[in-house]
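Blinded run. Sample ID left blank on purpose so nobody reads anything into the name before looking at the predicted structure. Input follows.
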Amino acid sequence: MKNWFHSWRAAVRIARRDAWRFKGRSFLVLAMIALPILGVSAADLTLRSSDLSTTERLNRDLGRADARISDPSLAGEPLLQNPTGEQYTPVGDFENKPWPDGPADIGKAIPAGSTVLEDTLGSGKLRTTHGLLHTEIREIKASDPMARGIMRLLDGRFPEKGGEVAATAHFLETSGLRVGSKLTARGLDADYRIVGAYELPSSLKADQVTALPGAFLAPLDKALKADDLPGTSPTTTQLVSVSGGFTWNMVREANAKGVTVTSRAVQLNPPADSDVPLYQQEGWGTYEQSTASKTFEMAAIGTIVGLAMLEICLLAGPAFAVGARRSRRQLGLVGANGGDRRHIRAIVLGGGLVIGVVAAVVGTVLGIALTIALRPVLEDYLGERFGGLEFRPLELLGIAALAVLTGLLAAIVPAVTASRQTVLASLTGRRGVRGSSRVLPVLGLIAFALGAAIALYGSTMTDQFAVVAGGSALAELGVVALTPALVGLFGRIGRWMPLSPRLALRDAVRNRGRTAPAVAAVLAAVAGTVAVSTYQASSDAQSRAAYTPELPHGAVSVMLDEGGGRDVPAVRTAVQKNLPTEIRADVDRISVGRPGCSMWAGEDGCGQYEVVVPEANQCPLWATGSGDGDPADKYSKAERRKLVKDWRCKESEVYSFVNGGVLIGDDKLLKVLGIENAGAEKALADGRIVSFDKRNIDTNGKIGIRLVTDTDAADAAREKGEEIPGVVKTFAAHQVGDAPEVYGITMIMTPGTAEKAGLSTVPLGAYYSTGAMPSSAQKQKLDSELDKTGSDVNLHIEGGYESENSIVLLALTVFAGLVTIGAAGIATGLAQADAEADLKTLAAVGAPARVRRTLSGFQCGVVAVMGVLLGSAAGVLPAIGLRLTERRSELDWYNKALDEGLGNPSIPNVPIMIPWETLAALLVAVPLGAAILAALVTRSHRVLGRRAAT
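Blinded prediction complete.
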């Protein structure tokens, strides 16, 4: 034991001295190992710190209160909830009766003797220095001790009077206001003074202002109602503090009164599942990740970590071999002084141990320091404050241990190779000749065949991506093991090459021990890049083919559905002023009820309209009747397959912003949409509706539009399959044939026709044609103008399909290029260390000085070319397998949709596209760049030395 300790201590001391002597090589290996450790340790600390504990989360939600009581709007019906209050359901069966809807009396659920703090949330449009900003408005006595922890005061104070508010820092930054500024709301004459700035720790990007209860929302709601504008939609919860905490039994008593409770005591000490009535109901329960899912995740993480360690070992291994080559005389002296192979291996492994330990310490320390230094940036990016820096020593030690293990694994092969050299060969500099292993290629071939078979099975027989990915990974490892043999095959083309590339290729083949790891490292990086690039390019081609434009290319639409269209004229003018528009087609919509109603109704005094589809034109798969169940169940699979292709069952592929599909406009709209139809223009001039969907026209060539004022009665009639009550207006119509592209518009009616029929209309927006595609500057200027209105404007500029993969593909190409150049550079350095004697011989026989430089460049280029070629071939296969799996999955869904009569699905288009630009960059630009770089950094003039006999 003592001898073992002393020998290893000496080996580590020698390795430490060599690492310090050759600082460049040591720093290279150190960086390769430390950088991943830095990233993983920083990610671990960031994730752990951002994952709040239950106590921290409750402090931000409840402050110092014991519970928050909320009204789920179930009309006070008794309910069941889970311990967190996030899941709940009313007690009873509501399948055959209306779902409860309405407020509950929260006051009845508050225990006697409790301290209560009211917390109300609403929203409104506040005036800023830039215009109007939709902002959350909160009413709570924020200075109350019970609210401490919900908000963090940054400047000033919380409101103490009715005319005071505090605002979040993000709101102040966005609005251009500051503490001390006056704040006003749209529609409200009163103004407020901003007296403080605060932040919500779990929502740093929230735009919110806080006032005292009753000071803001009620006056604003009153003013908005007077202007026939949507209100603030306030919701009130009660923060409760009760002696002894809010127990689970108290929560259940509150549930019986129709409210939900978020309780501190319950969440810190949750009841058993058997004591939670909600979990005893069918379809409810605790949902945890399955064991199979956890196993798959761990296997995926293990595979990623293993492949990353393999990549680092393949890159760092040749660097340790360089050190062993340059230290072979020193290692020979160790052998000459009584050291055996164990000591030689220990010295080389000691190098890996020293570098691994230093990389572990440096990577972990820098990762922690980087997280601490960037904590404010990380918190802003995540949008929430950390609860505190949470260090997990065991996890950090495990991450550091990976660095040490990686360093040792990278040094194993160089250590074994160095220990096999004889003392005489080491002292004289002779390299000797050693045949390559025959076992490794056989194992590689078996692994490749098995992996390919698994991937083929996964892509043709199952829908599991994991099977394809696992088989592809195994096949790639097989190719890595086959690399020495494949390098030997490349050597056969050397006979047809000039001197320098021939020497470089033969040197690479003769010294496969240093060439193969570098080629394998390039292979692994390029294979991953090509696989992801091929998959991304294929997915991009699929998305491009499936893209459906909402407007003609370059056209613009702007829609606004709020306030009865009061801001629409200003929005129309803003678009026309800031974009290069040519034709402007204003459009309105049909309004039923109050002018300020949304077209989606749902408010008191608001109705809706619908186009009456003749019964003969209704799709049988969708037709509703008095019977229960899905109408499609009445048909067989064959009948459903036939019906989904029926013209009556065709669905639009473009979402229509207009509920009901009827636009009030004129012939300018036809011109903007590119619809050239003289009959349609004449029909509009004659006061007829222009229809683009023949299902809406009856046998008399007319269209019926039903005006529904009682939406509740209409919903009840639909459920029973009865005729919907309402007044039906009938219009003469013109059907446009040949199915032109109409971008989701069902029909067009002129304002005169609507007025003549007694239909109420309100402004909706406009469509525009443009002379040129709007520039980014024009879009930004328009966005700024629209923001000033404070309205929820729906703006669309049709620019065609835009790929989001270009940056990803570029980043992958750059990454693979850097790895290729790095691995090839390491192999070139090792080649120069090995071929020093050959280079001296070339100089002695009169070879030009440039031969050394060109030889170095070709040595680097040969490694890069071999790795890129093998990696490209290995990377395309898994991507093809994954796409074939997706094709099978989409075909299965397509056939299922046909069998069940789900719409009118299109035949799946799952193309396989090879990213030729990426491959060209990898196959040509990267090896060429690596060769040129190696040639430039190599010194061409060397001092002649004595050539040792070999």
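Unblinding after everyone has recorded impressions. The chain has a mean pLDDT of 79.
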